[in-house]
Amino acid sequence: MTMSRADCDALLAEVRANQAKLAACSGPHSFRPIGEELKLFAKQRCACGGGGVASDQALWYKRGLAHGDRGG
Ligand SMILES: [Zn+2]
Question: 50 CA distance to ligand 1 centroid (A)?
């Protein structure tokens, strides 16, 4: 599969917009699965800022918060 230049530009713009949402969120993020089915690499969206990450990234983010609460 080959992506056109326009498709690459659109994908890059989507990634940058998502990163901007995550950066603008005051946090901590509150990631929730998108859809009813939870899959390892399904995307989750922050309920506060609307930015999305893969489920495994959300899992590690939540673990990081929990460990941070315990002082590392
Ligand atoms: Zn957030």
Answer: 7
Confirm whether pTM is higher than 0.85.
no
Q: Where are the domains of the chain?
A: 5-69
69 CA distance to ligand 1 middle (Å)? 18
| Percentage with pLDDT > 90 across the chain | 72
Dist. CA 5 → ligand 1 center (Å) = 31
As a whole number, mean pLDDT of residues 29-56 equals 86
Could you tell me the distance, in angstroms and rounded to a whole number, from the CA of residue 19 to the centre of ligand 1? 11
Q: How big is the CA angle at 53 (ends 49 and 58), to the nearest 5 degrees?
A: 95
